[in-house]
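hi! just following up on the protien thing from before. the input was this:
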Amino acid sequence: MSGVRDEVTQVGQGPYCVRCGDPIDAHEHLSCLDALVLEPPRYCAICRRRMVVQIVPSGWTAHCSEHGDLHGGNAV
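and the predicted 3d structure came back as:
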């Protein structure tokens, strides 16, 4: 399942914003785009569930109970 999730890491690639959880067409999400440069996604872009996020020095992992894992940085 994580293959589907690998591409859904940015605002605009699902019906929901991965930072604030609002629908993509609710507002422009400019502050969300800026914040995502430095922090991992918090919401699943597909189902809007709050993800469990683990941050380590080498990167991060975010887990949606329905759609699997996302990885960022050098974390595995």
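Residues 1-8 have pLDDT under 50 and may be disordered.
DSSP finds two helices and three strands in the chain.
cheers
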